[in-house]
Amino acid sequence: MARTTDNEHSGHRERMRKKFIENGFDVFETHEALEMFLYYAIPRKDTNPLAHRLLDRYITVGGVCDAPIDELMKEFGLSENAAALLKMLPEMARLYTESKMSHDNIIDYENLGKIFKAKFIGRTNECVALMLGDAKGKMIYFDIISKGSLNSSDMPVRKIVDLSLRHNAKTAFIAHNHPSGTALPSGSDLLYRKRHIDGRITGSTQQETVQIVARMLLYKLPEFICLFHAAKIIK
Known about the structure:
51% of the residues lie in helices and 13% in strands. By secondary structure, the protein is α+β, with helices and mostly antiparallel strands.
């Protein structure tokens, strides 16, 4: 009986694999895609019921991947290997997306939201990202410069100044994610914008344009990101 069951699972998995190779996940239901992904961490068990249970609890694949690893192991019986695989999915998605972007490109102000959003994929804690541009408008630095709790992240003003001077930057764009809620700016966000950045970085030279860019990001990406400062660097 066990051998028959193993053969049935093997045949089902092979059909699912061929279906994916021929069509991608476009023709899969969400639970089927998650079921198949779990094959590679759970080799000898029907993962369909598990996929349903995970989605019943966390609603989306993103919710499943963002769930605490200890919760996945304790409440759903996942091995550490299986739970780690789920946590790797958004991390790999971010690496893939970032690898498609060249840091030599001219900064595209219309797509700043997409660029920053890619940097925040899979991050469940609040982070601050800094993008620096040179005199010709090319991106010369882009990275996470601060990591915080679920709801807050310190603004590393000194680090921003130091990185700007080190890279001989002329412009700076700073954004952070709101993983636990809306991207509408918090009270501390608004206070920071009023104060701008202390030291040798001053406010933006085109405040009206900055306001338009920030507003675009807030409304187009309400679930994720808040761009709240752009500045010209004066040396």
